[in-house]
């Protein structure tokens, strides 16, 4: 009985290899899978991911979904679900990848691969972040999902990668504010421009956009004749980013008007100055 079962297993494995090497394209999708074991179907999916077209992992996705359909309560079905999410993400089927990853999280919340499922969920938002001019809804969702990975799995490699991506996504939001602010500034809508640059300085202080925001505030306030605010913005810029070319530009703008970088007045910028320069947060 044991020898017969072993022989059947070996023959089944040989059949798998034969199918893998001999079939391609649409004809491969017609191969019935009902007579294969969960492990065999799963390994066919892995094979397609490794040696198939990396940009078209549709065949691999089919195998992983078939494992779930034919063997829904098996260990291989659990593995197939996380691999299906991975394959869908690789295929840039982001909504499907999110659905599969979330299904894994809901079904196997305590599994060791739950951290990776959460990371895939976050990536499915992050990798959809397009150029700055697009709607930023996905960026906010990416930040929320990345934060979940960081907070729930702080010691994992996924958390470390999520921190880097979180910072980039955060910078992306600030860049969007800067783009709109520069547009208003160019059109001479100085108050509207100031409102955008203020968001960057107040809400996105840790991003790479802050030095330019302070320069543009200096420029906009000077255009409005609000020299106290312009001098204060330049003072913050000079204190925190003196090596930045944006500081040199702000310094020259003030110099042309006989002004210098100095915290003056009682505007919102003076409060920022007290916080970031003097450390007066209370």
Automatic annotation (TrEMBL):
Major site of localization recorded for this protein: membrane
Membrane-topology annotation of the record: Lipid-anchor
InterPro entries: BamD (IPR017689), BamD-like (IPR039565), TPR-like_helical_dom_sf (IPR011990)
GO biological process: Gram-negative-bacterium-type cell outer membrane assembly; protein insertion into membrane
Pfam families given in the database record: YfiO
One cellular component (GO) term of this entry: cell outer membrane
Domain of life the protein comes from: Bacteria
Keyword Membrane set for record: yes
Every Outer membrane lipoprotein BamD-like domain range: 37-234
Keywords: Cell outer membrane, Lipoprotein, Membrane, Palmitate, Signal
Subcellular location: Cell outer membrane
Residues annotated as signal peptide: 1-26
Family statement: Belongs to the BamD family.
Function: Part of the outer membrane protein assembly complex, which is involved in assembly and insertion of beta-barrel proteins into the outer membrane.
Quaternary data: Part of the Bam complex.
Protein name: Outer membrane protein assembly factor BamD
